[in-house]
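User: I'm curious whether this sequence folds into something compact or stays loose and floppy. Could you predict its structure so I can see for myself?
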Amino acid sequence: MKKGTLIKLIIFAAVLLFAGAVLLFMFVSDNDSESGKPASVPDSSSSQAQVSSADQSEDTSGPESTAQSEADSTDERDISQKAEEAVQSAGEALSQTGLESSDALDSAAMLSSYQALNKTGVYPIYAAGSVKYFGNTKEGYKAMLDDLESAEHFIFLEYFIIDEGDMWDRVEEILTQKAKEGVIVRVVCDGLYFDYDESPEYQDRLEESGAQFRAFSPLTEKGASRSNLRDHRKITVIDGRVAYTGGANISDEYIGIVKPYGELKDNFLRVEGNCVNSFTAMFLQVWDIYGEDRDISEFFTEYDSEDEKNGFILPFSDSPFDEAPVCEKIYLDMINSAEKQLKIMVPYFIPNERVMAALQEAADRGVKIELIVPGTSDNKTVGDAVRTYYQELVDMGVELYEYSPGFVHSKVCIADDDLCLVSSANIDGRSLYYDYECGALMYKCSESEAVKKDFDDTVGVCEKITEENVKEKGISGALKELLRTIASHF
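Assistant: Here's the prediction. I'll summarize afterward.
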């Protein structure tokens, strides 16, 4: 081989290594992303999710790291056993609160999701008494503050991210005051961003007031989580009377005080009545993983029979220890049931082969599919990975939109005029297999119209990806597979 050719090959190899290093750096350095830290995620062609307990950032050689790996595995087995016990305990309390029979099960998709959920625990269907959707998180936040101030018995909060700032300061002010008044206040936050030897400053303030705080699976001394399973849920429950869920965390960017990614688009869903019991159960399942001896029946309330004319609601949770991948099942059921239209809005769209095949089949049978993704992502690597699907989506006839003002973080799916989903779950491997998630599936619920309007209004400020601009906006070639591989480990 000529010397010049050899030098060119060496330079080419160095460029590839450098590019890989840059991508890995972005992958590791985007640690404030809602998509979370790296974790092992099943291959998109896998038919069964396999939970890995190995810490991806840790050297696995030597007795010390072996001991840590064994500790991690023990930790996840321990969580699994305790989670199962908590589900059974909460299920006993929930079993009397839902409808004994429901016209909602006339929907094939609703029936399929209901059956899948009830293999993993007790998830009743309820009459959708009072449901309010907030496509504007500032308005939802204000409503939540009003409800928190009215608390008399208990307040439960469970969030993936709770950041110090104006949004949290007002919530904390109410929580500490209520705790001093004798209200039971419990807060759970995922421990991904907590230093192993330091608790968040607000934990001390909460506990001084009488409130309780728990970090879900915090980091270890080596900087790696003892479990790669994250609590990605968003739940607020007040007195068993009102609950909130949706996509929004408690952090200033969710109410527009700071704008690191441009305008952030997210939502809250507020519910009242018997269905709140399901969100109470979801919270207690996670709380009880870390040990709590008190009788949980005091937190459940059975209200008078609710009018079914407003439709039905099925609150749900998903955990990595469920017998079925619940969130994936719900998304697939909605896609497969759609006859006329399908609307999806998610920040992280990194689908597996089953989701892509379902979308293709829906398009082939004439369903109008609209998909909104971020114009600017909070994680560049993940954002670029989403763009690797642009060409395939446009080719199958999907009406694809980028949210031009910034970062869309809402997780919404609407199928025809009947089914509507508001949840914490993305369409990616981490949400579908490894994270604790939650949400509400609604059937013939009048508030679904507000979700549709919010979706359509959002389309109005988006840039449409077409055959004319898809090559410019999308990513293809060798980089496509590299990005998908890296993003699959988020």
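Summary: The first helix runs from residue 3 to 29. The longest strand covers residues 184-190.
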